[in-house]
Amino acid sequence: MKSITIKGSQRESVGKSSTKALRNAGKVPCVLYGGDTPIHFSADELAFSKLVYTPDVHTAVIDLEGGQTFSAILQDIQFHPVNDSIMHIDFYQLHDDKEVTVEVPVKVTGNSPGVMAGGVLRLNNRKLKVKALPSNLPDYIYADISGMEMGNKKYITAIAQENFKIMHPDNTVVCQVRISRAAMKAAQEAAKAEKAAKGGKKK
User: Ranges for the Large ribosomal subunit protein bL25 beta domain (predicted)?
Assistant: First the structure.
């Protein structure tokens, strides 16, 4: 999984007044959990743009003044209710020998005969929770729709899982090819025409 570096400064004071001062200065107060003790730090709000405002998922390298660096994942984020600015972020520290659960986006591959025939592809789950060691976290979960006809569904069990485990029940539908209204109408009209033709032959 790709990583983004966040350069920050450790916070000595974590009170409301200091937090407000940070936000007024265009910085985001953050907390890093998962180590011996929580680490409070701040970073420029612009530093989080590639980490937050993207459909992809990345790990983060927290690079603090003084040479301390930590590998982490974004765990929780709070936005301002009016202007949507970032108010606070919680990170969770990654350890090479400890598995972690992360939501990973689903990417569709291949060509579906059902879609080419007029069906509609529905992505039931745009993200899936996976559990793996940090080094094995995938950038995407790939759902191959090759061979899927109208009405077909692709379940979790049909997704390749290499060095990671998908944390959803086996009957979870990842995507499906639904019959479009146009295709359904055409099928109904064809059935009516066939019925009428058979009726005419009986006379």
Answer: 99-179
Q: Record the tokens describing residue 4, joined without a space.
A: 């983004």
Q: Indicate the CATH number of 101-185 among 3.40.50.150, 3.40.50.300, 3.40.50.1100, 2.170.120.20.
A: 2.170.120.20
pTM of the shown model:
0.78
Contacts of 95 (CB under 8 A, 6+ apart): 34, 134
What was the pLDDT predicted at 74? 94
Cβ atoms 124, 175 nearer than 8 A:
yes
Q: What is the mean pLDDT of residues 105-119?
A: 92
3-94 CATH pick, 3.40.50.2000, 3.30.450.20, 2.40.240.10, 2.40.240.20: 2.40.240.10
The model's pLDDT over 191-200, given as tens digits with 9 standing for 90+, comes to 677 777 776 5
Strands 69-79 and 59-64: antiparallel
**d(C-alpha 165, C-alpha 47), whole Å:** 31
pLDDT on residue 200: 59
- Label residue 7 exposed, middle or buried (CB < 10 Å: 0-12, 13-18, 19+): middle
